[in-house]
Amino acid sequence: MLMRYDYLVFIGRFEPYHNGHHAVVRHALTLARKVIVLVGSARKPRTTTNPWNANEREVMIRAALGGDADRVLLRALPDHLYNEAAWIGGVQREVAAAIADDGGASDATVGLTGFDKDASSYYLREFPQWELAAVQYSAVLSATEIREHLFSADEGGQLLIRANVPTPVAAMLEAFRRTPAFAQLSREFTFLKNYRKAWEAAPYPPTFVTVDAIVVHSGHVLVVRRGAEPGKGLWALPGGFVGQTETLLDACLRELREETRLKLPAPVLKGSLKAQRVFDHPQRSQRGRTITHAFHFEFASGELPPVRGADDADKARWIPLAQALDLEDQFYDDHYHILQFFLGVA
């Protein structure tokens, strides 16, 4: 059969891989010799939005494809939440590496495929060098709906899952429901559901305002470990919600003191303020629409001040910057990307 492309690229999170994804890959295999599947959000911690790591999602995809798996090249694709150019470069880099590893020619014919369904499909037009082979959106449960059913106790929902994912994926999801990771995510799912329910009577959809502190001292960054849902056990930047009578900076300094017991006086901290920025990605927080104002404090040298976890942080510690930048899968919400931004490595 004459193939239109040497390679077709399909980008997604696949949380989980469902029948709609499967239809795209199957169709792509009729058009291309090989399909390059980029598994996004590759280094995220487990959350109710991203329950499976990249390796687990790759296993799902390979199991669903069966004998066609050898025609699909799977690559992990990390997020760059506040640097679109870096994300685009990452896609280009992974595609080039997949082709090189496959022994493909440098002038191989490459196309891009995926659902062109709504505003979230904007990325399909970020790669003009690749012809777009868009496919019609399939009328199946979305990954979001599947996750909602997965974490509910509704038996009917479990039947719907089995009807909307490939059989091998259904078996993997059922096995996942018996793991400690699922139990923790179920608790988080219940917490978030109740949290959002408490705001249902508000006259307008709520927008929360928070602050975060990035304190860099002698090549270390100050982080706290979350002691409760959401994100229990994950590392985070010290911070929290802004009080009704506080300025943003004062709220940041208060949260910093409450969560870390850092003894540096407020004038010293204010004098070390290097930068500040608003981070407002619509999906940055699992709680709902949350805009954070982050403040970057920097001390070039000196002995690290003692810290101790308090308030809703069960631990506070100084982590070497190089180590912190290797912990993307252990950071809460978008805090890793905020840290990246201020360190200039995003």
UniProtKB/TrEMBL annotation:
E.C. no: 2.7.7.1, 3.6.1.-
Q: Which cofactor does it need?
A: Mg(2+)
Q: Check the record and name the Pfam families matching this protein.
A: CTP_transf_like (PF01467), NUDIX (PF00293)
Question: Which UniProt keywords are listed?
Answer: Hydrolase, Nucleotidyltransferase, Transferase
Question: Has keyword NAD?
Answer: no
- Which domain of life, per UniProt? Bacteria
**Domain Nudix hydrolase stretches:** 206-342
Q: Does the keyword Metal-binding apply?
A: no
SUPFAM superfamilies, per this entry?
Nucleotidylyl transferase (SSF52374), Nudix (SSF55811)
One molecular function GO term is: nicotinamide-nucleotide adenylyltransferase activity
Q: Which PANTHER family match?
A: BIFUNCTIONAL NMN ADENYLYLTRANSFERASE_NUDIX HYDROLASE, PHOSPHOPANTETHEINE ADENYLYLTRANSFERASE
**Entry's NCBIfam families?**
cyt_tran_rel, PRK05379.1-2, PRK05379.1-5
Record's protein name: Bifunctional nicotinamide-nucleotide adenylyltransferase/Nudix hydroxylase
